[in-house]
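Troubleshooting entry. The earlier prediction with zinc ion gave an output that would not parse, so I re-checked the input for stray whitespace and re-submitted. Clean input:
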Amino acid sequence: MSSLELPAGKTSAFVISFDFDAEEVWLAENPENANRPGVLSQGTYGAKVGVGLVLDTLDHLGLPATFFTPGRVAERYPDQMREIVAHGHELGHHGYTHTSPTKLSKSEELDELLKGKAALEQFGVEVTGYRSPSWEVSPNTFDLLVENGFTYSSSMMDDIKPYVHPAHKVVELPVQWMLDDAPYFWFSVGSDWNRTIRSARDVEEIWREEFLGIHGLGGLTMLTMHPQFIGRPSRVAMLERFLTFVKSHDEVWIATAGEVAKAVK
Ligand SMILES: [Zn+2]
């Protein structure tokens, strides 16, 4: 049995994570989007505006975060990457492209893993964490993580507490759609005109309730956001309110994903 060893006085853990996808999520969804600058501009917003607003919010509150970033995004936006690192945040792997591992052969998946890691480590940091694109893993993913020196994954939805994958010495920091901004805020033309965009207030309420529930059970609240969605002005304001609320609970350990992974024994 694995367990999370919290610092003295803390009763639950909280991680602020961002998947800095920029254009890659649209490119992986449909390669023809490479010829649709309007579609891609939704992702460009994350790099151009969202990341800066999110970094300002974290600075105001003095909180650390983990930015899971596809290698091609890191290559396209080196200034933003340097800013993220300079502010003391952690970088995590999120594919080289944003291609789901379920669509890749084992050798293609290995190639994505190595190229993505190299692209991030150019910024002078060690990358030990992996979050699969779209939270999809293949039958080979955990073998490849172990073989390539990764110590944690943050892609599975089967728990509220971190654990060690039984057949692999890799820590899992579980995620959930409820604690992700995309299901509430992602709107894209063509596929889902019937879907409405949720108000920041609604999402704030859902996140507060779920955080309190996980906190009461001594688990890990893994908040997952995307600069292109959370980086809109009304939503960044909500994020500041929500994180201020979380911070007001002294018994919550707010740390990077890497720090929480290290505390799992
Ligand atoms: Zn992503």
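This one parsed fine. The pocket of zinc ion is lined by residues 19, 21, 25, 94, 98, 133 (CB under 6 Å).
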